[in-house]
Each structure stands twice: as structure tokens, then as C-alpha cells.
């Protein structure tokens, strides 16, 4: 882990890969829940970093964290959110082409993987889900769509994501879910938060 | 009608409801939002006896006009502008009594960009994740004001105003932003780092609540390639491929994929909120992390 100062009140922790990032993020949440972390306003995981913002003494915290023993994460202990999906996306054939499989194979492969929310961003409630084997990474569309309907299940790079509301987007769309990803009146507002395990269930949507 | 509410008579170029924003949800992709000039918003609130964090209106250059349905104390602060009640000049930077049915007109700012209108009791728009702030990036919170809209007011505060008139620091002719080097300063050529803190920039017209864009000499990268998305702080100076720095303001995205060359000292961002397009900008080292 490398700790980089960001202004006077934040630290950017950088890791080798997504796996190590996820493990450290889980440890941060565990320690925060146990009251064993100094006050931090925001803990923002991303692809290979975790940002800690609103820290009184970033340098001291960085020194403390360097000595942490981070156990391998116990993802299996987390509850799973099941997302019912209709695999009816307009880019299904294109994704099948990139994968070198028949279009009917895409749902089997996609719903067969187990996912975890690596991080959120882009829009409230939009999670970047990892879990699809690396060989199934797909490029973004060369021309983004001006409007992607809410509930669209898309792929980009190694990630799967579900659009919480209609917005422009360049992800390859493979399906649709009726699940409510974001509802500010609900507690919690986001169905998918960093660390959440996710399974896609075909057809039920 | 005796209800505590006001009608929007003239929404102005962009008028939004703002309080202190919604901190602590960045991990869900929710920007902090909140008044861009939080000191001005707090001062306006104090003039009418509110808590600093009560929801106010934030105008952009051309002000706005509202017609309260009840008599209410109002204070206008931030960017200095003419204030009128039913066409009669009224005080700026002080509490003004607006009778029920009268029109409060907040005029075009003479200097600066964003005026703040505080009502005794605050704007009582529906709170989302603990804040009434309009977030232009993700669309959370009340929609920007439109002509004819009706917004509710909270119960008037029981205490007296903390003071009767507020000193206003004014709007400097030049925006000076103190910076520390950011986490990705090593992605830039040494010459680029010198450029940022020694050459003049100007505020670009493309600035908004998401970011203060500047024009000037582009910053040259030392390292090619893409940066995986990472968390972004308020005041981060992000540099897209065109090399022109963008200073992240309250509605900034919570993660981003362009390298952050520097981070602006947070208290300086209030002045950034008041800088009009064309205003000269100087980035100066604040010590500490700067090198």
C-alpha cells in the first residue's frame, strides 16, 4: 500500500490490484464499525485506491495504517443481493461477438458469475461490479448513447453496472432489471454499496 | 393566504436551494453539494436569526425575484447587488422586512457572481439524505427555481438575529488559490508544475457549480496512459487531456479518471465561487505538500 496526501485533510491509499483494494476497504469498514478508526467523513473505494476524506491528521493515520495486518476478506459472510434480469439488451449480439460465443450463451456466462460492488460513482447508486472473468472484458461503445433507460444492465471493461436512472452512457447493454437501484426515501438509499455481493438471476425480471 | 411560502416571480439565470450539503455519501456517488460560498450563506442566515446551515437561495449573476405569501425577514448577501421591495430600494447585507404579497427583487450582481437570499425560518424544501441542496450533477434535491414555482418556508426562528449588518469581504480583482501538490503531481512534467504556480490563468466561461475551469498555459504530462478512476476531493485540480486545470467545486463527481495535479486550500473556494469569467487566477504554493 502507498499513502498519498490529498490536500490537508485527505489520503489516497493506492494498492496493487482490485483484490487488495477490496480487502483493505473491508478492513477499513470493519475497524470503523468497531470504533477503531479516527473520524473520517468519507471512505471512497475505487478501482485501485481508497480515498479517506475529512481526516484530522492524515499523516498520522497513514503511519498507523502501515502497521495494520489486513486479513483476507470474508466475502462469503456478506449477504447477497439478487438482481432479476431479462437478457434483452441491444448490445447482446455485439458482446457475444467479442466473447466469441453464441448470443444465447451470454446470459449463462453473465448470470453464472458472482459479483461484488468494487466501488460506486458516475451517478448515485451506480455500482462498478467485478466478478466476470477477465477474458470477458468488453470495450465501451465507440459512440455513447444519449439516453440509456433506467434498469439497463451494461458491461464495460471488466465491470458490470446497472443504470439507476436514465442517463447518457457508453456501456454495452445486455439486459434489463426492474430492481430499484436508488431511492433517496429508502434506508439505505442505494441497493448496491461498495462491498455488496450481487448475483444476477435470469428471466425472473 | 397565510401559509409560509413564496412564489418565484423571476427565477434568474440559475437560482438553486442550498444549505451545507450532504457530506458522507461520496462512496455512493453522491456529491457533497451545498452553497458554493458557504461563508456568505452563513452570514445571510445569521442576519435573519437562522442557524448557519438553514437553506437559502443561491443566485447566479442576474439575481431573482420572489413574492412571499407571509411577512418575512429576508437578508441578501454574497455578491453585492441592488435589493428592492415592491420597487423601493432596500438594504443589501442586512435584514429586510418583506410584507406579505410584496415582491422582493434581488438584482444583477455589481461584482461577484452568487448572491444568497436567506429567509427567516429557511427554505423548507424536501431534504434528501439530510440536505436541501440542489445538486446539479446528479439531480438530487429540489430542482433549480423556475418562474411560478412555490417554495415553502420553515417556522421563523425564536431567537433574535446575531447581528444587524454583516461586513462582506468583497470580491478580489484577482483570484488567488493556495494549492498543495496533489496525489498525481508526478504525472506532470517538472516544467508543468512551475507553470501552474507561476503563470497567469483566467476564469473560463465554462465554469459552473461542478468545476471552476481556467484558461491559460496547458500543463504537460510526464506520463502517458490512463489513470484508473479514483476518489476526488473538493478543491481537487484535475487536468483533462487538453492540459487545462479544472478546480472541483461543490457538485463535483466523487470519482474521476484524470490526474489531480494539486489541491486548493478549501477556504479559498468561496472566492472561486464569486469569480466571474475573465477574472485573473493565480495558483500559489501553500507550503506543506507543495514542492
TrEMBL record, chain A:
Lineage: Bacteria, Bacillati, Actinomycetota, Actinomycetes, Kitasatosporales
Statement: the UniProt record of this protein carries the keyword ATP-binding: yes
Organism: Streptomyces kanasensis
Name of protein: Allophanate hydrolase
Matches recorded under InterPro entries: CT_C_D, Cyclophilin-like_dom_sf, PxpB
Pfam family, one: CT_C_D
Keywords: ATP-binding, Hydrolase, Nucleotide-binding
Presence of keyword Nucleotide-binding: yes
Any one GO MF annotation of this record: ATP binding
Domain Carboxyltransferase: 1-192
Superkingdom assignment: Bacteria
UniProtKB/TrEMBL annotation, chain B:
Gene3D superfamilies documented for this protein: Cyclophilin-like
GO MF annotation list: ATP binding; hydrolase activity
UniProt keyword annotations, A-Z: ATP-binding, Hydrolase, Nucleotide-binding
Record domain Carboxyltransferase: where: 27-291
Pfam families: CT_A_B
Signal peptide limits: none
Keyword Hydrolase tagged: yes
InterPro entries the record matches: CT_A_B (IPR003778), Cyclophilin-like_dom_sf (IPR029000), PxpC (IPR052708)
UniProt keyword Oxidoreductase present: no
NCBIfam families for this protein: urea_amlyse_rel
Name of the featured protein: Allophanate hydrolase
Natural source organism: Streptomyces kanasensis
